[in-house]
Amino acid sequence: MTVALEYLAAALVLLAAFFLLVGAVGLVRFPDVYMRLHAPTKASTLGVGGVLLASIVVSLAHGRPSLAELLITLFVFVTAPVSASLMAQAALHMRLPSGAPVPRDAVPERRPHTPGSTGQASGKS
Predict the structure, then answer these.
(1) Which are the contacts of 12, defined by CB distance < 8 A and separation ≥ 6?
(2) Whole-model pTM above 0.70?
(3) Which residue of 22, 36, 70, 95 shows the fewest CB atoms closer than 10 Å?
(4) What's the domain range around 39?
(5) What is the pLDDT along the chain (125 residues), one digit of tens a residue?
(6) Is residue 120 part of a domain?
(7) Which residues of 39-55 are buried (b: 16+ CB within 10 A; e: fewer)?
């Protein structure tokens, strides 16, 4: 392994550690659940991505394929935003308070289900 690849891997790990630290600080310092979801989701995706890129650099320098790292990166980049979105939707559904104004149409009104109704509007005016 060359010195340049070692420096590149070390720089990627340091960059990833910085993003993870920023995400952890954001998780502790932000005031409400929506902001607390945003900081670690974005930062951890970039942090894990940096660590996996460093692992790819090291594995390629040693001459072995890095298919596992590529699959893990793909999995993290797909699942982290989806899980954060689902948690934010659950928080909206539970009507957790937010520090920012929430538009009225962000959470649809729940109407009680009445027997015999299909939920579709009738064509009569």
Answers:
(1) 50, 51, 53, 54, 57
(2) no
(3) 95
(4) 3-98
(5) 689 999 999 999 999 999 999 989 988 888 888 888 888 888 888 999 999 999 999 988 888 878 888 899 889 888 888 888 888 888 888 888 877 665 666 666 666 666 665 655 555 54
(6) no
(7) bbbbbbbbbbbbbbbbb
Buried b (16+ CB within 10 A) or exposed e, 79-117: ebeeebeeebeebbeeeeeeeeeeeeeeeeeeeeeeeee
DSSP string, 39-88: HHHHHHHHHHHHHHHHHHHHHHHTT---HHHHHHHHHHHHHHHHHHHHHH
Total number of domains in the chain: 1
Question: Is residue 122 included in any domain, yes or no?
Answer: no
Sequence-distant (≥ 6) Cβ neighbours of residue 113 within 8 angstroms: 119
